[in-house]
């Protein structure tokens, strides 16, 4: 059956989505290591599917930030060094700070940002790490969407998607808990409040300071071993 068609019954997921889910699980559990190549023919044989189906699944993971692809080469699982993390937070500070200010300038509707925050709050309360990371990623993507600037939005996705994909891998493989997000819920709420109150310049500076703090903590803790990770969880 073609990977672009649904299975019999019409309501089952597409083959490429099923394969993407299986490969994603291999990645986030560490069975495929950061930086490792994903050879289409090899995984086609393992999953007993056509190589083209694996290619489509990899394309999904590339859009999600879990893998990187270069022309004519096998995809590789995203891998970030401590310095990479620091650089990404510097970019996030600039992009998300500007987005917060532009959201006020545009008098943007913050409904979806508030929804993402509520999802983050619920997932944190339940202690579900993967859902916490998904909700946190959505919060920051929504913040950048509020800018109304398509160039900022495009660059934000390039920064945020691989960042949160790698964060998911780290959190799951090290068994980290959700306590850092619990402590930072008030900070996320403050961002929402400043935008709602029309404090654009203050919101921009607040987001910049947050990212500097988050980045310093992540830089310190990013490469902890699993046992260390359980004792001291890196910030997102």
Short synopsis of the structure:
The protein contains eleven helices and three strands. With 236 residues, the protein is an all-alpha fold. The chain is elongated.
List the helices and strands and how they pair.
Blueprint lengths: L14 H14 L8 E2 L1 H8 L3 H14 L2 E2 L6 E3 L4 H24 L5 H16 L2 H17 L4 H25 L4 H5 L1 H12 L3 H22 L4 H6 L5
Antiparallel strand pairs: 1-3, 2-3
Low-confidence stretches: 1-11, 225-235
Helical content stands at 55-70%
Q: What structural class do you assign from the helix and strand content?
A: mainly alpha
Rounded to an integer, what's the Rg over CA atoms?
A: 19 Å
- Main sheet characteristics: 3 strands, antiparallel
User: In percent terms, what proportion of residues is strand?
Assistant: under 5%
Number of helices: 11
Overall geometric form: elongated
* Mean of all residue-level pLDDT scores: 86
What is the string of SSEs from the N terminus onward?
Answer: HEHHEEHHHHHHHH
Distance between the termini: 40 Å
Count of extended strands: 3
- Give the assembly state of these chains: single chain
How is the largest sheet built, in terms of strand order? 1-3-2
């Amino acid at each position: 059956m073609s990977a672009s068609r649904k299975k019999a019954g019409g309501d089952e997921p597409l083959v490429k989505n099923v394969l993407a889910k299986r490969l994603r699980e291999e990645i986030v559990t560490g069975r495929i290591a950061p930086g490792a190549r994903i050879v289409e023919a090899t995984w086609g044989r393992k999953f007993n599917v056509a190589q083209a189906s694996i290619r489509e699944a990899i394309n999904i993971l590339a859009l999600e930030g879990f893998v990187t692809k270069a022309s004519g080469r096998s995809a590789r699982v995203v891998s970030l060094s401590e310095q990479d993390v620091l650089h990404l937070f510097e970019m996030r500070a600039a992009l998300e700070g500007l987005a917060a200010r532009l959201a006020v300038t545009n008098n943007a509707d913050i409904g979806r940002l508030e929804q993402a925050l509520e999802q983050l709050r619920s997932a944190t309360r339940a202690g579900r790490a993967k859902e916490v990371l998904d909700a946190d990623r959505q919060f920051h993507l929504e913040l950048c969407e509020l800018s109304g600037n398509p160039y900022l939005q495009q660059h934000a996705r390039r920064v945020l998607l691989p960042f949160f994909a790698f964060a998911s891998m780290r959190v799951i493989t090290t068994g980290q808990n959700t306590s850092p997000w619990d402590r930072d819920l008030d900070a996320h709420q403050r961002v929402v409040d400043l935008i709602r109150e029309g404090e654009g310049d203050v919101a921009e500076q607040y987001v910049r300071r947050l990212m500097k703090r988050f980045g310093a903590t992540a830089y310190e803790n990013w490469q902890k071993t699993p046992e260390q990770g359980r004792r001291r969880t890196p910030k997102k």
